[in-house]
Amino acid sequence: MTDQNTDSERRIDTAETDGGVAEPDPSSAEPTDGESIDDESTDGTVSIAAPDIGADAAEQVQSVLESGMLADGPEVRDFESEFGAYCGTDRAVATSNGTTALHAALEGVGLEDGDAVITSPFSFVASANAIRLAGGKPVFADVDLETYTLDPADVERVLAERDDIVGLMPVHLYGLAADMDWLSELAEEHDLFVVEDACQAHGATIDGKRVGSFGDAGCFSFYPTKNMTTGEGGIVTTDRDDVADRAAGFVNHGRDVGSGGSYEHIDLGHNYRMTSMAGAIGRSQLERLPEFNRARRENAAYYDEQLADLPLETPTEPDGYRHVYHQYTIRTDDRDALAATLDEHGVDTGIYYETPIHHQPAYETVSTAAATLPNAERAAETVLSLPVHPALSERDRRTVVEAVRDHFHSQ
């Protein structure tokens, strides 16, 4: 591991138990800045997201501000080391956001102009955008309608039809990992790189192995609504030194990673660096990530039980997988009317995503834009995300469930 953690008092628990993580006793968790996650909402609205930064992070940011080392300083190096250890990878490269992490990872694996990469049409547009920004061509394969992640069987179909595919970018959507066993087998068989888009899946696992450690590189976003945040930020995880070095140079104006702050630039690059303030927040948030994910899973389990008898599809968690519920996404033909009912009850919802990427105006000229991808299109018409964040109170959860049940029982 490079960039060893220099703060001996910080500990990120990397142990795995039963497909999950070794998580602290809730009674021993650090106090949050303000109300605890069990306190009841006071504004009458159940929000779709509620970032919880906490007092410790604020103190760490204040320390960085007082140090004067605000850009890409020691806190960023320590965060890289700690997050890589959490994911089980040898290296990690922090960036300014999830999109720049994806871009840097693709540069790191050596994507060249015109190279074709298979990815999901049912994701935030940044997944496919990053391929185009790196000079490649996104090629869409359909998703599995139960998991909303790339369908390996459809990836096989695309590979049989095309001979220009150089890589795969599976998206771990909503907090659930894609079928990495099957996709990794396809990648090995066809000599493809794999860049995981794990921007919504911090801590998700398959058989105890965390996302971000399956492919040649993994990418995470730390946008405020994610399972953990740095305000804005991203990171690339990898076991490959060549990928890490190229990514690190790319995010720092193409500098040689061993040259420090020199003005010798060996390649083209961008300023995609993470700030030291973001790194400080990230270190604090990473310590609390098991707590956050546990709360999300508890909220999801409550919904699973309370909504089981209704005519809608709740999220799936395949055997051996650990879902971390960035979103709790249900599926129903009555999506729009249900969303309106929830709004009347003061419950925020989200549709992620109403337009699949291959139907976006910016993708009209992409070669597979006209492809028929029925599962992605069906999902776009029927998905609805309910509040599942850690700050939900018992009353919030009851309000959500009662509103959903009232909607279907009134029909």
UniProtKB/TrEMBL annotation:
Segments of skewed composition (Acidic residues): 32-42
GO biological process: polysaccharide biosynthetic process
InterPro entries on file: DegT/StrS_aminotransferase, PyrdxlP-dep_Trfase, PyrdxlP-dep_Trfase_major, PyrdxlP-dep_Trfase_small
Gene Ontology molecular function: any one: transaminase activity
Region (Disordered): 1-46
SUPFAM superfamilies cross-referenced by the UniProt entry: PLP-dependent transferases
Gene3D superfamilies: Aspartate Aminotransferase, domain 1, Type I PLP-dependent aspartate aminotransferase-like (Major domain)
Keywords, ordered alphabetically: Aminotransferase, Pyridoxal phosphate, Transferase
A Pfam match: DegT_DnrJ_EryC1
Family per record: Belongs to the DegT/DnrJ/EryC1 family.
Name of the featured protein: Aminotransferase class I/II-fold pyridoxal phosphate-dependent enzyme
UniProt organism field: Natronorubrum halalkaliphilum
